[in-house]
């Protein structure tokens, strides 16, 4: 089994290839290293984030509130969809509202929020960053400053129904797309494969994974879009053909994470591409508990390459009580809180040592697979105009999946749209 430091090195190498954040953006370089003195004010604060699917964020807030009655935290739950969460946070920042104090930022939003100065730089010396997975730390950085503390990391996994595979005489989960297609041919009467294919950030993740898993890349290390390649075509064709052949049930075109999870838990799917958070929830779902496992995503010629996801904690520039906010972020990213969160939610921690704790490995047999997937994970482009990048991807891919354009037309259009957005 690869050690976490090997994984960390692998992930760093991958992340280091995407240097767009340093190259683009309108934000000017921060001259001095921020200190915690700049973060003043104590009192009640809020945490704004997407749906608390495990309920554990509220639980951890309750623990904090008991210990800090003068500095309580109120959870503000935003919509389920990543894009809608971003939209609300951006609107809030544009009106300089102090309603949100701590922001749960998706890893792909750091550059935009930092360059626009919607979030405050965090004092690096208040966090022992050497203890966190380097790839996760990098997702919270912009121009050498830390704007969001690494909290939860993420990588796509293949959830599969062990019982259905066994019944069909299949001894191991598929490692390649052609094995997946063959397995789907053997299991009748149930939808075979799904991911998140609605027109939102999840589609960008699923598309990027398909391209990377065919040996391609959406944007190369110099920031040049690279989707007019045979590999990108093979990746997108895997999804387009999946819908055409019925391997992917047609309703999956409306799936975001929670829709996909519900379909799997209803027993409607054999295979599902999903993030680690589903493990804990499906382990309680009556129809599938004890009957599923996870494997690395399959790819064109062998195991695929998942997309690096995750969420980090930042402080809104317009908020009051920033000193409380910093303490709260330190609490949420501490070893004990991250361990408790893994136990309660199965979300991937950012603290490296947790992956090696035998008790955790015993409780979560998926941890080694998750480690391997993180080792392979590829970041999405880091760009201040990331929202334009992802919108262009979503439009092109959605048009191909719904038959409004061919794969070639979609990729050619995307190639020309991405250029000005990623090469700044
Ligand atoms: C997960 C990932 C996040 C990604 C989102 C897409 O929450 O952690 O990085 O953008 O899914 O829906």
Automatic annotation (TrEMBL):
Segments spanning the bilayer are: none
Pfam families in the cross-refs: SBP_bac_1
- Cleavable signal peptide: 1-21
GO cellular component terms given for this protein:
ATP-binding cassette (ABC) transporter complex, substrate-binding subunit-containing
| UniProt key word Transport | yes
Q: Which GO terms describe its molecular function?
A: maltose binding
Q: Which SUPFAM superfamilies match?
A: Periplasmic binding protein-like II
Q: Which CDD domains match?
A: PBP2_TMBP
Keyword set, alphabetical order: Signal, Transport
Q: Where is the composition biased (Low complexity)?
A: 25-36
Q: Does the keyword Ubl conjugation apply?
A: no
Biological process annotations from GO? maltodextrin transmembrane transport; maltose transport
InterPro entries attached to this UniProt entry = SBP
Q: Where is this region: Disordered?
A: 25-54
Q: Please state which protein family the record places this protein in.
A: Belongs to the bacterial solute-binding protein 1 family.
Kindly provide the name given to this protein in its UniProt entry.
ABC transporter substrate-binding protein
